[in-house]
Amino acid sequence: MLAPVVAALHKIPENQARAMFREEFENVRANLSKLGLCKRPHEFIKQGEGLRAKHRCTKCGGEVDALYADWYNQGLEDGKQ
Ligand SMILES: [Zn+2]
Questions:
Q1: Number of domains in the chain
Q2: pLDDT, tens digit, for every residue of 52-78?
Q3: Are 33 and 8 members of one domain?
């Protein structure tokens, strides 16, 4: 379990670290749900700057990282041939 390690590193209570993991898990699950229910194809638009900038779909609001968005868009182009 990572919660004790994260709690020690950040000097926070272990239950707070567990709550952070739960919240992050729920965020990931909600994002995957949005992406899965999208009226495709996704239309990813870069949000912000830098390598870690997320790409958000204008249709569903789901977010992915740059690598996923680039491969998704490349797949769409390949599918047109
Ligand atoms: Zn979408």
A1: 2
A2: 899 999 999 999 999 999 999 999 999
A3: yes
Per-residue pLDDT of 3-59, as tens digits, reads 899 899 999 999 999 999 999 999 999 999 999 999 999 999 999 998 789 999 999
The label of the residue with tokens 């898990």 reads 25
Do 55 and 18 share a structural domain? no
Ligand 1 centre from 78 Cα, in Å?
19
Phi, psi of 66 (to 5 degrees): -60, -40
**Ligand 1 geometric centre to CA of 26 (Å):** 18
Ordered alpha helix ranges (H), 1-81: 3-10, 14-37, 66-79
Looking at the fold, whether 3 and 29 belong to one and the same domain comes out as yes
| Whether residues 31 and 51 fall in one domain | no
Distance between Cα 9 and ligand 1 center (Å): 36
